[in-house]
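Researcher: Following up on the earlier apo prediction. This time include the ligand. It's zinc ion, with the SMILES given after the sequence.
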Amino acid sequence: MDCGKYYNQVGEFGLKPEDLERFRQTSRHLLDSGSLLDIGCGEGYWLKFLSETTDLQLSGSDVSQIRLNLSRKNLNNENISLSVDDITELPYENKEFDQITALEVIEHIPEWQKGLAELVRVASKRVVITVPYNQELIYEICPDCGGKAYVDGHINSFTKKDFQNIIINGKVSFKGLKYPLNYYTKKALKEIIVKTKKEAEIGNEEDCTPIICPDCYKDIPSTRYAKFSKRALSRLSKIIKHYPEFLLVQIDK
Ligand SMILES: [Zn+2]
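Model: Understood. Below is the ligand-bound prediction.
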């Protein structure tokens, strides 16, 4: 799988209100000065949030040139350097940045352990990552090649154990990130109702991100809404079980 080619085709995710809530919760885990490189910066919303709320010296990196172009547009700040990099082979010196962040990135990466080791290698002080917590992975079978095309490209699911079972060069701590209950229950219900309704309307697909085959890079639109509704239902069940929505992993060196 060529991640650059794949994510060039995904298009814009856009900034959702719950992203800002996650940014607020995540930023409490950062050191408040020095340099920070954000890996998998995508459209640059997290960097924008940090540029408006901290004095950190910021850089960003993503595997997709198209997504980096969106970052540049959204950031509107020439002081933030951006570059196209592969997380499993970062072109940076050991400890080149004080802090590294990668928010919702490694669930997309086939060799995620290798990627995480790279994040730790180029950080001198701290690494903060977030991943969806214990997410049910949902996929569509590609009608052309028979490959599995995962919703949102999420190919890995994580609990604390996944990080406790590998060797990490640093002190690892965890925090479950939750959204306010009322807010998120309402949102999940809305997702189910709206997307199930839209499923019946042929050709009206703008609200869901594409489901792209990682083998032949084709968009598989046929049952997109059904898959996203299934995702929303699975989120509701997490709320009922009092699971966090995301797992934050902090690594101090
Ligand atoms: Zn395919």
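Model: The radius of gyration is 18 Å.
Researcher: Noted. I'll compare it with the apo version next.
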